[in-house]
Amino acid sequence: MTALALDGARRFVDALWNDSILPVLTEYVAIPAKSPHFDPDWQAHGQLDRAVALAEAWCRAQPIRGLAVEVVRLPGRTPLLLLEVPGPGDDAVLLYGHLDKQPEMEPWADGLAPWRPVRRGDRLYGRGGADDGYAVFASLAALGALHAQGVQHARCVALIETCEESGSFDLPAYLAHLKPRIGTPSLVVCLDSGCGDYQRLWCTTSLRGIAAGVLRVRVLEEGVHSGDASGVVPSSFRIARSLLSRIEDERSGRILPPELHVAIPAERATQAAAAARVLGPEHWRRFPFAGATGPLGEEGAERVLNRTWRPFLEVTGAGGLPDLESAGNVLRPETALKLSLRLPPRLDAELAVARLRALLEADPPAGAQVRFEPDQAAQGWDAPPLAPWLAGAVERASRGWFGTDAAFMGEGGTIPFMAMLGEAFPSAQFLITGVLGPGANAHGPNEFLDLPTARRLSGCVAWILSEHATRPR
Ligand SMILES: [Zn+2]
Question: Taking the model in full, what pTM does it have?
Answer without folding.
Answer: 0.86
